[in-house]
């Protein structure tokens, strides 16, 4: 079992940067593919980025490509989301999640078994 805790959210002006951290507990963290999702106000949760267990493969939603970078440090049981050139449209609660090894694709919430509590990111114009 994995427990996830996000941090690093906050209020930032458009064009600014934030780095989100997801700290994981559990000795098997390095075996999980990990994902970041976000839920804008009044909308459904949506895929942002994912990373394979080794960090060798990364995936991004089109609107964040070139602005966001996902990475992980298995020795520290952590996954990161570096966000740059932030836009008001990036305002959301951001969640990290651990892949449950299901048949669902990496961009589907159904693929993930464990979720953090979320961290708020607000981008002002």
Description of the molecule:
0% of the residues lie in helices and 50% in strands. It is mainly beta and 125 residues long. The strands form 2 sheets. Strands 2, 4, 5, 6, 9, 10 and 11 form a 7-stranded mixed sheet that branches. Strand 5 and strand 6 form a beta hairpin. It starts with a strand and ends with a strand.
Write a concise synopsis of the structure shown.
The protein contains no helices and 11 strands. It has 125 residues and is mainly β. The relative contact order is 0.31.
Tell me the overall shape. Answer: globular
Q: What's the helix count?
A: 0
Write down the secondary-structure element order: EEEEEEEEEEE
| Helix vs. strand class | mainly beta
* N-end to C-end Cα span: 40 Å
């Amino acid at each position: 079992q994995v427990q996830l805790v996000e941090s690093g959210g906050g209020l930032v002006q458009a064009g600014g940067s934030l780095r989100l951290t997801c700290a994981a507990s559990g000795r098997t963290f390095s075996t999980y593919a990990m994902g970041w999702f976000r839920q804008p106000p009044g909308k459904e949760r949506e895929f942002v980025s994912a990373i394979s267990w080794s960090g060798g493969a990364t995936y991004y939603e089109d609107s964040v490509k070139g602005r966001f970078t996902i990475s992980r440090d298995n020795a520290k049981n952590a996954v990161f989301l570096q966000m740059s050139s932030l836009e008001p449209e990036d305002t959301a609660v951001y969640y990290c999640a651990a892949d449950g090894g299901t048949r669902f694709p990496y961009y589907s919430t159904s693929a993930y078994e464990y979720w953090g509590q979320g961290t708020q990111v607000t981008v002002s114009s």
